[in-house]
Amino acid sequence: MDHYKVLGINKNASKEEIKQAFRKLAMEFHPDKHSQSSKHLRDSATHKFKQLSEAYETLIDDRKRAEYNIKRSAYGTHQSKRYDYHYGGGGYSYSNPYGYGYGYSGSARRSGGDGIFTKFEMGLRFLTTKSFLLNATFVGVLLGGMYIVDAGSKALWKTRNPGLTPVEM
């Protein structure tokens, strides 16, 4: 499914254009609007609304949009039912009819060898997650603080005890 075609926008659309396209189409295909329609029309509208929601969720988030664009360019813009992208649960997965796929956040399955690029890419994604960077910053501040306190205590000891050497533990 091509998210850009679903929303009827081009690849360079701004967030505002994405919002406007989604709102317009969501009003047209919202399941509540078709509650009195025939079952076939109601199911069709519900399916279209789910596609619109998935496309909006992917394209409005900068990170998901970048990942989608990378995968889209890597596999071409033609995507049939044989290739499927799934976003949700904090991750994405890709699967094809041959039974293998990839992704992160536990949503992917793969059979076969991992390439070095895939391992590097997964490692890079892990190292650039917000929680990892916040934890690394916190550890850095703690270690820096410990070094400053240790150096300060040694300097203070030397000023209070001139001519003596501190006993190292």
Question: Would you kindly provide a written description of the structure presented here, covering whatever features stand out?
Answer:
The protein is mostly helical and 169 residues long. Helices cover 58% and strands 8% of the residues. The chain contains six helices and three strands. It has helices at residues 3-7, 15-29, 39-60, 62-74, 116-127, 130-160; strands at residues 84-88, 91-95, 101-103. A three-stranded antiparallel sheet has the order 1-2-3, with no helix packed on it. A hairpin with a 2-residue loop joins strand 1 (84-88) and strand 2 (91-95). The radius of gyration is 26 Å and the shape is elongated. Residues 78-84 and 87-113 have low confidence and may be disordered.
Structural class: mainly alpha
Compressed to H and E, one letter per element, the order equals HHHHEEEHH
Q: Major beta sheet, specifics?
A: 3 strands, antiparallel
Q: Into which percent range does the helicity of residues fall?
A: 55-70%
Calculate the mean pLDDT score and round it.
77
Strand proportion, as a percent range, falls in 5-15%
Q: Would you count the extended β strands for me?
A: 3
Note the total helix count.
6
Shape: elongated
Poorly predicted regions are 78-84, 87-113
* C-alpha end-to-end distance: 65 Å
Arrangement of strands in the largest sheet: 1-2-3
How big is the Rg? 26 Å
Keywords: Membrane, Transmembrane, Transmembrane helix
Protein name: Chaperone protein dnaJ 72
InterPro entries: DjlA_DnaK_co-chaperone (IPR050817), DnaJ_domain (IPR001623), DnaJ_domain_CS (IPR018253), J_dom_sf (IPR036869)
